[in-house]
Give the backbone structure.
Amino acid sequence: MHRFFVPQIFGDVMTITGVDAKHISKVLRMTIGDELQIVSDDGVSALGKISYIDAVCVKVSDLQIIAESHEPKVKITLAQGLAKGEKMDFIIQKAVELGAVSIVPVTMEHSVVRLDGPKADKKVERWQKISESAAKQSKRDIIPQVQNVMSVKEMLAANDCATKIIAYECEDQTSLKAALKKASENEKINDLLLIIGPEGGISENELELARNAGAVPVSLGRRILRAETAGLVAMSAIFYESGDLGEY
C-alpha cells in the first residue's frame, strides 16, 4: 500500500499537497474511497481513505492509527566518505531501506569527489529526495535526514552517539561482532555512528581523529569491500546482531 509523509500534526483529516497530491491523482490514478497510509509530522502512522482529490490537494479521513513500528531498535547514523558517480545515490537509497536514521556525507582525504558551497547544497537536496522516496517505498515511519557535507572532524563533533564504529581495512584485532557485543554489554548499542571510508579508504590521520572521539576500529572480514558495499554490509550485520532482521 502506498505511504505518504504529511508535514502536518496528526488530526481527523490529513491534507496531502504538492508533488505527492499530483502523483496520487495523475500517476496512481487513485479516487475517493481508495485507501493509503500516511505518516504525520509528529510520527503517527495511520491508514485512511481519500475523501477529496484533485491535482493539487488530497484529503484523507477515516484514519486508523497503525500501532506497529517499522523502525529498528538500533538507531544508526551512517557517516559515508564521499563516493564518486552515482554511488552516493545508491548508498543513501539502500541505507534508508535498511533502516538508517541519518546519513552524513563526509569529505575525506582519499575522497575523489570534492563538494562545497552551492554544489554541496544541491547534492544534499537531491540526496534528501532520494531518502524520502526510499522511506516511502520501504514503509519507514520517518524520513531519514541527509546531513550537510562535513569534514571528519565536523562529523565527529556533530554526531555524539553512544557507540562509534569505524570500518578500517587494516584492522586485524577487533571484529564488528566483537565491538557490538561489547557495546551491548555496556547498554550502548541503541545509538550508533557507523563510519565508512571512500574508495581510497580511511587515512591514518582520520583513523586517529575517530579513535580520539571514542570510535572503535573494526574489521568487516577477510575480504576488502567497495565503498558502496561496506556500509550496507555493516548495517545488515548490526541489525542482524540486534535481532532486527527477520523479527516480526
In short: The mean pLDDT is 91. The chain has seven helices and twelve strands. Helices lie at 18-27, 87-98, 117-137, 152-158, 176-185, 204-212, 227-241.
